[in-house]
Design brief:
The protein contains four helices and five strands. By secondary structure, it is of the alpha+beta class. A three-stranded antiparallel β-sheet has the order 2-4-3.
């Protein structure tokens, strides 16, 4: 039975624990491409419930990855989200580290 191992000078780079969650990754991916967007647009694109989206937005906001602006428009609450510089950098780093997983230099032990 052959076992694969990673050479001593190569390590797995850590992935962002916040962005490992699929819904949060979707949200940040969307916000990377638009200047800002509202809650309903994110809900539609992520195909999630209102409650789940609220929780994920709160987590992203708490770690500084997005900013949330709440206001009223024609007596209805409106929530707009925007990615922050911290979120932009976290997203880029997450994917750079993930790409390195694809390029692992594995050797087989006989």
């Amino acid at each position: 039975l052959a076992l694969a191992f990673i050479s001593k000078n190569q390590m797995f780079k850590p992935l962002d624990k916040i962005l490992i969650n699929p819904k949060r990754l979707m949200i940040v991916s969307i916000l990377m491409k638009v200047e800002n967007c509202d809650f309903n647009f994110l809900k539609q694109l992520t195909q999630t419930t209102q409650g789940n989206l609220s929780i994920q937005l709160k987590k992203l906001n708490e770690c500084g990855y997005i900013s949330i602006n709440k206001s009223f428009e024609k007596n209805y609450p409106k929530t707009n989200c925007k990615i922050t510089k911290v979120g932009f950098k976290a997203f880029k780093n997450h994917f750079e580290n993930l790409k390195e997983y694809q390029n692992l230099n594995l050797k087989q032990k006989s």
